């Protein structure tokens, strides 16, 4: 059963960017790129790296243990670390400052844990940069849903009236 033991360790490290893997940012604004990790056996000499479009390293950090905060190894000057690992959530999020259109793309948060036989895992988030935030107009959708809902309601009401009328006719015939 040695193979089973290795299989269990391979899935002990998990990395997440939250509920959605897409972020929209306004041109020239700062944007949070969230990332957290969990490990069931703890961590030691953990290394985490953020990549832009899979190849360009934009932040590289190391964490000695649960009792210590991450230490910067290297970073892009426009990237700021905003996470904390001494709390319960093992947050290794970053903020990308003064976002430009060329910053749109895929950001990968990669984590490697020495305590788990160098198990590694990553999560990806996609950044879209826009000139201005646009509110979506759902008026047409609401009208369609209202009309369809109204038609279904009318159909149910018609079927109910039909049953009541048939019931009354049957009772009247039974009485004769």
Query: Which residues sit in consecutive blocks of at least 5 with pLDDT less than 50?
Result: 1-11
Order of helices and strands: HEEEEEEEEEEEH
Going by CATH, the homologous superfamily of the largest domain would be: Immunoglobulins
Proportion of beta-strand residues:
35-45%
CATH topology of the largest domain: Immunoglobulin-like
User: What is the CA-atom radius of gyration, in angstroms?
Assistant: 28 Å
Number of strands: 11
- Quickly give the structural class: alpha+beta
In CATH, the architecture of the largest domain is: Sandwich
Helical coverage, percent range? 25-40%
InterPro entries: Ig-like_dom, Ig-like_dom_sf, Ig-like_fold, Ig_sub, Ig_V-set, Myelin_P0-rel
Protein name: Sodium channel subunit beta-4
Subcellular location: Membrane
GO biological process, one term: monoatomic ion transmembrane transport
Short descriptors:
single chain; 176 residues; Immunoglobulin-like; 2 domains; 6-stranded mixed sheet; 3-stranded antiparallel sheet; 26% helix; elongated; disordered N terminus
List the helices and strands and how they pair.
Blueprint (H helix, E strand, L loop, with lengths): L1 H9 L2 E4 L5 E5 L4 E3 L2 E4 L6 E7 L3 E8 L7 E5 L3 E3 L12 E3 L8 E9 L5 E12 L8 H37 L1
Parallel strand pairs: 2-11
Antiparallel strand pairs: 1-4, 3-9, 5-6, 5-10, 6-7, 8-9, 10-11
